[in-house]
From TrEMBL, chain A:
It comes from the Bacteria. Its EC number is 1.8.1.9. Binds 1 FAD per subunit. GO terms for molecular function: thioredoxin-disulfide reductase (NADPH) activity. Belongs to the class-II pyridine nucleotide-disulfide oxidoreductase family. Residues 5-284 form the FAD/NAD(P)-binding domain. It comes from Candidatus Amesbacteria bacterium RIFCSPHIGHO2_01_FULL_48_32b. This is Thioredoxin reductase. GO terms for cellular component: cytoplasm. NCBIfam families: TRX_reduct. Keywords: Disulfide bond, FAD, Flavoprotein, NADP, Oxidoreductase, Redox-active center. It catalyses: [thioredoxin]-dithiol + NADP(+) = [thioredoxin]-disulfide + NADPH + H(+).
């Protein structure tokens, strides 16, 4: 039947896109359920300097737009819709209203908020998850950044171009960010760090006025930027494929390393990876899943 | 496909162009990643909703006063005005569904 896809890829970050490049070039009829917010985490970044091949770096959204052009050039059907329902108990598999002989899960990871009492109502009013989107609104202001990884360093550095003072609040006594990013932060005179502290609440009615620290102290600030990481986007797969202890989808294949516990359903990228979490590793995982998928379909006689 | 480009508003014509009926205004900027997703969606919607809703945009870089007047501190922010008064807003990109639901709540389906 012509309306059955060989492969349905769920997700459109570097993992899903790379998988799509490989499956479409293998002449497999490929559908990408890209999500209404397509492109993944890189859509919220600025200059990506660690993706091989871009000597001067490349803007994250530009990199993803290029990948989209590339998959579409090879014939991947790209749908800007969210995957809301999957059924891996039938053959062919179902994703929303589409049918596929195989599925590659590449849904990545979702942004984690701090879950403070007043956080949600102040999003877009001083609380932000995206310095690259919002930093310009904090010209001449003081802001707080929470987190200790590369993402938090980037937030602070981007903010330092606009804000007058950036206070980083971190719950440990050292950052886990890469050395080069830490060096840039420590060398920046506008950025200060408060170690071993957590933000307990954010104050303000219509806009952010301050944050309360675990010490009980209140810091005056007009912005709170959150960068404490991500959790795997696995909600629609609960009970459908095996998850590990941390809630990440698991690769359990033997002959096909990237296969989940369900034959024909493959996993790739940040949805299963809690260690490396890089754009370039996600792309690599996407390639692995696509090659496994191609080989599996062949063995199944499709 | 012929697309009606959304209308660019500035501080000099903002009041004039938002005072009548329903106007949806997209506060955006060139450097904003998520705006690259919301922009094309809104352009497409300006065709779909032609005659019912005017979809327009404000570049927050050149129109900082407008952004600050409407308390925009995050982009994309889309504000729906009826007869010049704010009805509701969508902060951040929530897909086409986010904008469709803003309009649905204002009675436009």
């Amino acid at each position: 039947m012509s309306d059955i896809y060989d492969v349905i890829i769920i997700g459109s970050g570097p993992a899903g896109m790379t998988a799509g490049i490989y499956t479409s070039r293998a002449k497999l009829k490929t559908l990408m359920i890209a999500g209404e917010k397509w492109g993944g985490q890189l859509m919220l970044t600025t200059l990506v300097e660690n993706f091989s091949g871009f000597a001067e770096g490349i803007q994250g959204p530009d990199l993803m737009a290029n990948m989209r052009k590339q998959v579409e050039r090879f014939g991947v059907e790209f749908k800007e819709e969210n995957a809301t329902e999957v059924d891996f108990g039938v053959k062919p598999f179902r994703v929303n209203n589409y049918s596929g002989r195989s599925v590659i899960i590449a849904t990545g990871a979702e942004f984690k908020w701090l879950n403070l009492p007043n956080e949600q109502k102040l999003i877009g009013r001083g609380v932000s998850s995206c310095a690259t989107c919002d930093a310009a609104f904090f010209k001449g202001k003081k802001v707080v950044v929470v987190g200790g990884g590369d993402a938090a360093m980037e937030e602070a550095l981007v903010l330092s171009r606009h804000a007058t003072e950036i206070v980083m609040v971190h719950r440990r006594d050292s950052f886990r960010a890469s050395k080069i990013m830490q060096d840039r932060v420590f060398a920046n005179p506008k950025i200060k760090v408060i170690w071993n502290a957590e933000v307990k609440d954010v104050l303000g009615e219509n806009k952010v006025e301050g944050v309360v620290l675990s010490s009980g102290e209140t810091l005056q600030t007009e912005g709170l930027f959150v960068a404490i990481g991500h959790s795997p986007a696995t909600k629609i797969f609960e009970g459908k494929v095996n998850m590990g202890e941390r809630g990440y989808a698991q690769r359990e294949g033997d002959n096909f390393r990237t296969m989940s516990n369900v034959p024909g359903v493959f996993v790739s990228g940040d949805v299963h990876d809690y260690i490396y979490r890089q754009a370039v590793t996600a792309a690599g995982y996407g390639c692995e899943a696509a090659l496994d998928c191609e080989r599996w379909l062949e063995e199944e006689g499709h | 496909m012929v697309s009606v480009a959304t209308i660019n508003l500035t501080r000099s014509d903002f009041d004039e162009k938002t005072k009548a009926r329903l106007v949806m205004v997209d506060f955006w900027a060139e450097w904003c990643g998520p705006c690259k997703m919301s922009g094309p969606v809104l352009e497409q919607m300006s065709d779909e909703y032609a005659g019912r809703v005017v979809i327009s945009k404000v570049d927050v870089d050149s129109e900082t006063e407008l952004a600050s007047k409407y308390g925009v501190m995050s982009i994309p922010t889309v504000i729906l005005f009826r007869d010049g008064q704010e009805v509701s807003r969508q902060i951040g990109f929530a897909g086409k569904a986010g904008y469709v639901s803003l309009l649905a709540k204002a009675g436009v389906v």
